[in-house]
Amino acid sequence: MMKLFSINDLVKLEDLIYTRSFTYFLKIRQLLFTSTVTPINKNIVRHEQELQYVQIWHDEHLVFGYEINDNKISSHGKILSKNDYASFFEWSPDSRRLVFTAEEKRKSLKSYFTADKLHEIGEPVSIYRENWGEQMEIFETSVVCIFYLDTKQIKLIENQPKSLYLGQCNWRNNQWIQLTEFDQLCRLFPRHLPNDDNQFVYLQSNIYRAHRQCERLILFDTQTKQEKILISRVDNVEYSNPTAALFTAEWDTQFKGIYIPLPFRCYSSDGRYLLLCSLSGSCNVLYIYDFIEQKLIFLDSPLGVNTSVNGLAIFGHYVVVNIVGFRTPYQLYVFDLKTLNNTDKDNNG
């Protein structure tokens, strides 16, 4: 497990983010190890004014580091701090390669009269670059980069479409395949099934709507290119008991749709269960989707109603969550998926 915490630097007037990792033994319920750096390969992006530094750590040792502006090493531009659908890091299964997205590297602007070679002139200042807008003006043109730990080299994936902003990446076969057409749908957060490389799930939403909107859960088959809706979009919540008082257990557990991205480790080891996070009023709630029974199972909070349950990850058949209430700090809980009973009520209908 890893914890992020930050402190405010009053001199630099910025927040400094630190990480701490923990090793917890489930059988004896004891904390075995704690460290300020994770014991596996980890990438860190540090900022200092307008400069950025990338560091690769392993076993509390700095393996490699470079400056983004170093033209000899860095073939990409700034790495954006938002680690969601537009900015992404993912280690390969053998931890020898790191794939990430960054902004396209721009040539430094030089005058025609001072440049030694014509290709050093760069683009004129008057060239317009389209960005995302709405407090996301820094997103313009992305490139997919691969860092090779053995050779300490960074390579860009060639022939990337300039009209697309590439975001999240997954390690699969070395080939380009366009799975869907350009339609009026937005597809985010793909997660491959652990025991089937030909199927993955993702969240689907309509374009030209709010950023945080209700989304569908889709199962996609890469061989047949067929989409199957596992969980539909909920436009209007219909309560099973309309007379129930607000903020009671029945009102709180009523499924209201999917509003939160899929976690990175969202599958059980056998691929049967999928971890889903969503919202219910002002609280976060947690659901488990059963692929065999094809139903949605609500995970009750041990602290009662009006508490937020934040799903962190699934390890094997254990679900690690953070639970917080209005009067209680964050508490770590572990759910065992093997205890799920087939008689649990289906909150999706």
Summarize this, please?
With 349 residues, the protein is mainly beta.
Main β sheet profile: 4 strands, antiparallel
Helix content: under 10%
* Percent in strands: 35-45%
Question: Judging from the principal axes of the Cα atoms, what is the shape?
Answer: globular
Can you name the CATH architecture of the largest domain? 8 Propeller
The CATH topology of the largest domain: Methanol Dehydrogenase, Chain A
Strand segment count:
20
In the sheet with the most strands, the strands line up as 7-8-9-10
The computed structural class is: mainly beta
Q: What's the alpha carbon Rg, rounded to whole Å?
A: 23 Å
Mean pLDDT: 76
First-to-last CA distance: 34 Å
Walk me through the structure:
One of its GO terms (molecular function) is serine-type endopeptidase activity. The protein has one helix at 249-253, and strands spanning 2-9, 14-25, 30-35, 42-48, 51-58, 61-67, 89-91, 97-103, 142-148, 153-156, 185-193, 196-206, 216-221, 226-231, 273-280, 283-290, 295-298, 307-315, 318-325, 331-336. The strands form six sheets. Strands 7-8-9-10 form a four-stranded antiparallel sheet, with no helix packed on it. It has a four-stranded antiparallel sheet with strand order 11-12-13-14, with no helix packed on it. The longest helix is centred in the C-terminal third of the chain and has 5 residues, at 249-253. The chain is globular. Residues 36-40 and 345-349 have low confidence and may be disordered. The protein has two domains: 37-171, no CATH class; 188-349, Dipeptidylpeptidase IV, N-terminal domain (Methanol Dehydrogenase, Chain A, 8 Propeller). The protein is 1% helix and 41% strand. The protein contains one helix and 20 strands. The chain is an all-beta fold and 349 residues long.
